[in-house]
Amino acid sequence: MQKLLIFLTAALLFTASQTIAQTPAVPSLDEWEVHDPDRPQPVVVTPGELTSAPPPSDAIVLFDGTHFEDWMHANGDAVKWHLRDGYMEVNPGTGIIQTKRSFGDVQLHIEWATPNSGTGQDSGNSGVYLMSTYEVQVLNSFENQTYPDGQAASLYGQYPPLVNASRPPSEWQSYDIVFRRPHFEEDGTLKKPARVTVFHNGVLVQDNVILTGPSGHRSRPPYRVHEDALPLFLQDHNEPTRFRNIWIRDLEADM
Ligand code: MG
């Protein structure tokens, strides 16, 4: 009987630890206020030369530099951003654009270049919003200081990049992002938070971090239940930032 109890207790503990391992808790970032200027600035790392990564055979090409067929504005209008020679450019004031398709877990490649103007948060600010909700910041962070959780490759308002691998403004840069979406219970409570890995110009800058919830300006709002797949947003922050070579791989089948 005693052996049976010991076995059952061990089995229960094992099951509990497995459950904990599979369901990471939402971290507390209380150590740092949102946009805390005293948070340490990431060390500067000069990236290697390569930027472009051609899409692999199973990728969905979202933008090849020739048309906006896979994009629209949030109200359904045709894209009013500029289509230039092989890239798109934010047309300030026209609003965010979003993919017509929706995605959950993805691998995303995107290239971008900021204008050579402005300072702080007003130097080429844009953003890659996974599931329309979770922002990987786009900004000129080359010799342009801002609060660390708002610089290029930050998970806006939550995590500064591990290092600052920025190139100068006007030069093309890349993000390679692995995003695992949040999961929700039937009643809308959080079952599993979202996780993000980011390479900036080939350098690891976000290592499977656990998001605290949606991105917010001066706030860290809690998770709100949403669909399992949502469009990708690109932000219009009133500056003519450019994007090219955008492709995505659907990882939902890998779960
Ligand atoms: Mg932004």
Please explain how this structure is put together:
- The chain is mainly beta and 255 residues long.
- The protein has one domain (32-254): Sandwich (Jelly Rolls).
- The protein contains 1 helix and 17 strands.
- The strands form 4 sheets. Strands 2, 4, 5, 7, 11, 14, 15 and 17 form an 8-stranded antiparallel sheet that branches. The chain has a 5-stranded antiparallel sheet with strand order 3-6-16-8-9, with no helix packed on it.
- The radius of gyration is 20 Å and the shape is globular.
- Bound molecules: magnesium ion (MG).
- Magnesium ion binds at residues 125-127, 135, 137-138, 235, 237.
- Magnesium ion is lined by residues 125-127, 135, 137-138, 235, 237.
Query: Portion of residues in helices?
Result: under 10%
Average residue pLDDT: 92
Ends distance: 40 Å
Which ions, cofactors or small ligands are bound in this entry? magnesium ion
- Count of individual helical segments: 1
